[in-house]
Write a structure and sequence with these properties.
By secondary structure, this protein is mainly alpha-helical. Helix content is about 65%, strand content about 0%. The longest helix is centred in the N-terminal third of the chain and has 15 residues, at about 5-20.
Length: about 170
């Protein structure tokens, strides 16, 4: 039997359903909110070119996801590398992700490992999880289950759901 719902109830149901199927996008912890005007892109561009690491990472996200601009992995990688060069942990992680996937560059697991390690050491939870996976599966590095567990635990302690699931599977 169908029961009429208020508009607010539909919104609540939609939000709950979206939460059940939502997976955070890769590579970023959270991509920048969808920008509707080129002026917003110009502000990101200006701050990024002035050397702001977070803006560089966010600009990379815009190119990675194709928001406001055409999707361009090479341009995304360019901005991620600039953020990474300044030690921005998301820039480090995103650069590692690009090397791991071969987006905008040649696939290179050793470079992915290098960037994931720096991001993980800086406390980036997704990088800690992915580093755990590299060690667990021996991708770009010799298999090391103890090292994998160490990184999965660090990521899980920050609430990373993939790391929590990995630890559950390893019990």
């Amino acid at each position: 039997r169908w029961v009429p719902l208020s508009a607010g109830a539909y919104k609540t149901i939609t939000i709950h359903l979206a939460a059940l199927v939502y997976e955070p996008p890769t590579p970023s912890e959270q991509p920048p909110k969808r920008q509707k005007e080129k002026g917003d892109l110009a502000r990101y561009q200006k701050a990024a070119e002035a050397g702001d690491a977070q803006s560089q990472n966010n600009l990379g996200d815009l190119y990675y996801f194709g928001r406001v601009v055409k999707k361009d992995y090479q341009e995304a990688l360019k901005w991620y590398r600039k953020a990474a060069a300044q030690g921005n942990r998301n820039g480090l992680y995103n650069t590692g992700h690009m090397y791991y996937k071969g987006y905008g560059t040649t696939k290179n697991y050793q470079e992915a490992l290098r960037y994931f390690t720096k991001a993980a050491e800086a406390g980036q939870a997704a990088a800690q999880n992915d580093l755990g996976s590299l060690y667990y599966y021996g991708i770009g590095v010799k298999k090391d289950y103890q090292e994998a567990l160490k990184w999965y635990r660090k990521a899980a302690a920050q609430g990373n759901k993939n790391a929590i699931a990995a630890l559950d599977r390893l019990k």
